[in-house]
Amino acid sequence: MQLLRPLFGLAALQHSAHATQFSFSTPTVSTSSIQWTDLTAPPDANATSQLIFDAVNAVLQHWPHTRYRNGHTIIPGTVPVGTLLYHGRQDRELPRTPEWTSVDPEHSFPFAGDSTTDANTTAEGCWQHTLVTTRPLKVLYFDGSSAANIKEGGTLDMQDLLIWGKVDPARWVDERERLDDLCAWGNDFGLDGFVRMEMDFEIMLCDFSQGVELISTDYLAALWSRHITPPLQRHTALSLDTTSSADNLSGPNDRIVADILRFETIHAGSWHNQYPGDTRFKLDLTGLVSFYDTTLAPSLIPARRGKERWDHRPAGISATDLTAVKARVGEVLTRGPDSDGSGIDWQASFHVIVDRYADRLETLAYLLNTTTPDTVSERARLIQTQLRIMLTPYILYTARPTPGRSSTASDSDTWALPVWKGCATKHTAHIHASPTLQSRMTVSERLLLTALDKTNREICRVVVKMWAAGVHAGLDPFIPLESDDGHATTLALQDSLRVVHDWRADADRLMSWLDWAVWVKCRPACGVEEMCYLPTWPFFWHEGRKDERWERPQPRCIRRFEPYSQL
Ligand SMILES: *[C@@H]1O[C@H](CO)[C@@H](O)[C@H](O)[C@H]1NC(C)=O
Ligand SMILES: *[C@@H]1O[C@H](CO)[C@@H](O)[C@H](O)[C@H]1NC(C)=O
Ligand SMILES: *[C@@H]1O[C@H](CO)[C@@H](O)[C@H](O)[C@H]1NC(C)=O
Ligand SMILES: *[C@@H]1O[C@H](CO)[C@@H](O)[C@H](O)[C@H]1NC(C)=O
């Protein structure tokens, strides 16, 4: 959130009710054309299913969106009745124009200023407004670090495209106009505000007199004995640099106070790091719109080509595609009650897949990279057992190679194809089979179903391929192979080495394709006095510190109390 003050002028927000109905007439998702013939065929390089999968999986979570700040997903939602919102400032005025609110007071407090007097002994200081929602607020969520003002960082692309039709690098800190224009645009849809993320989650509230009630205006005791430089002047919030000469009008504790304010803000953000994220927002995934949707925004396919995920930008979208995206966003914000979707809990459905594989794949990667047990053939057997365990629900009794044809190459994988198909289709086959669900699904839900299916299909492809290779190598304890002369085969050391080598390559490729944030951890794990941290805007703005670690955030442990670590 950029600190916007002083604030004058009343923005009268009208909540217009839209009841327009839209018929979503895309063709039903068909599985009949899907091939289950080649375990070696990797996914299309232009595919984005795994990225859409990851966006759904990462909704409202701080960690993944601190890592990939360049958001691509817009989701409508509500903030339920009874949610507390905070707004800290240096005077007791309630904002009369669109302004920020935080959901955690730790994020609001640093903006409340000091509680001393200025040079003219005018009382100025540490005011905190606490508001509560009195009806469900209608909000729009932008994923990524969508409140971080990073020039050319992609964080603001979606907002700027929606309101200004283009991303103008010169307007990266134009927060006043951005918010005013977002609210003016959102007024047509009855939007009360916008959910964004930076050090923590925030709601940019369009009207402090609509849907919220002021509970209290408190003059808090500040930790601080002087003013915080307004972020808009420095392009950072919480820019408390005690080394700057203009800033040292103060006592010896300032460094500590600055550290406390900084740490506690990201500390509060870290409470929402992992699934289920910040549960105070209720997002409606049946209205999800993604810039990774290759049907909706095909112009971004060539724009992403050759670029790493860090560098994907919605900004490269064509005018035609942007018109389509805006129309889609308009549709989901004006849907009637009849088009609220299938009733499937997509968040839970996606998370089932992540639960089933995140930890198992991580263990697999560990086993592939360890030297315990110390003989490669013992390790190979251990890993093969893990691969089998992952696939147990899908390995039918009949899934075994024909005796005598076991040790030949990939054309003998045919016996394993039903395991792949079972693994890849069991979670959603009932959706494909149900005409009722099919007819109720929104366009967004079809996108979600495809993302779920394709991501799951690829996980299953690779795991089955690995398992089948182990079976062929005679490593599977439950499918002992017999050689042509009827004796059990003994595995040569050379074969184990080759199998493990291939497995490692397969597992590496799969895990980098999935690229799940749950695997991004501090290694070794942080101590009790520490917290795992990803470099977070705006703390990497200090001169001379813009290195790769901030561009492509890597986790590290920081201290929870004095002496604080540099962020
Ligand atoms: C103090 O008051 C003078 C005269 O009213 C004004 O010009 C000046 O800006 C004030 N200083 C501060 C720090 O508010
Ligand atoms: C700020 O601190 C520096 C170093 O301690 C000192 O030289 C300077 O005079 C101080 N400036 C003010 C405005 O107090
Ligand atoms: C990927 O996208 C590029 C650029 O749009 C296109 O030329 C290429 O044919 C696509 N590849 C596949 C496998 O669809
Ligand atoms: C593999 O193990 C080595 C040594 O323990 C470690 O440094 C490296 O980070 C590991 N690589 C992966 C991908 O886990």
UniProtKB/TrEMBL annotation:
Keywords, in A-Z order: Signal
Stretch forming the signal peptide: 1-19
InterPro entries: YOR389W-like (IPR038921)
PANTHER family in the cross-refs: ENTEROTOXIN, YALI0A21131P
UniProt-recorded name of the protein: Uncharacterized protein
Organism in which the protein naturally occurs: Mycena sanguinolenta
